[in-house]
Amino acid sequence: MWEERPKRRPKRTLGIREKQILLERAGYKCEACGKEIRFSEMQVGHKTAASKGGNATLRNCVCLCYKCNKLQGTDSWKTFLKKMRKQGSVSSGVKQTLKGLTLPKLKFLAKKHKIKVKGRIEEGLFEDRELPPTKAQYVTALVKRLTEKDIESDLKEFTEKPKKKREKSSRIGAFGVFDL
Q: 9-88: which CATH number, 3.40.1800, 1.10.30, 4.10.780, 3.30.70?
């Protein structure tokens, strides 16, 4: 009387609209090597392969070029990125360039490319407080999305604001006038 429906298998591919969203999120670049790609060249990679229990959701998918998708195989995303760094495919030059920049320049690049970098939350005894992102957190976020050409061309637009000079103030204490 009551028939049990067979369980649906999770879908293994993304629809066209989801692929467009994925490509836009990646800034029209391969998320592994940074190569610029068009929609027709894009391949969907998985952070956790379907054969290892991953499914086709935007959270689990990454935008890759053909070469990087073939190199990834069924490796997890973290394992794949470690392999890429060892091979030197993920440009260590970009990372070194970013490490050499000042924090205001890193913030400028992140803002220009709409990359949100969150700081960490420090738990206190009575209240928690959110700390601003560190230089290392900016570098980690930016190295995934920028190429050396991007950095070079974008920094031409950057103008550093001059630091305001503080005036010396004096304080009158019990033992006379003190400069601070």
A: 3.40.1800
Rounded CA separation 143/70 (Å): 22
List the domain boundaries for the chain: 9-88, 91-156
Q: What is the mean pLDDT of residues 137-165?
A: 81
Total number of residues shown for the chain = 180
pLDDT above 60 for 83? yes
- Residue 179 pLDDT level (bands cut at 50, 70, 90): low
What's the per-residue H, E or C state across 25-73? HCCCECCCCCCECCCCCCEEEECCCHHHCCCCCCCCEEEECHHHHHHHC
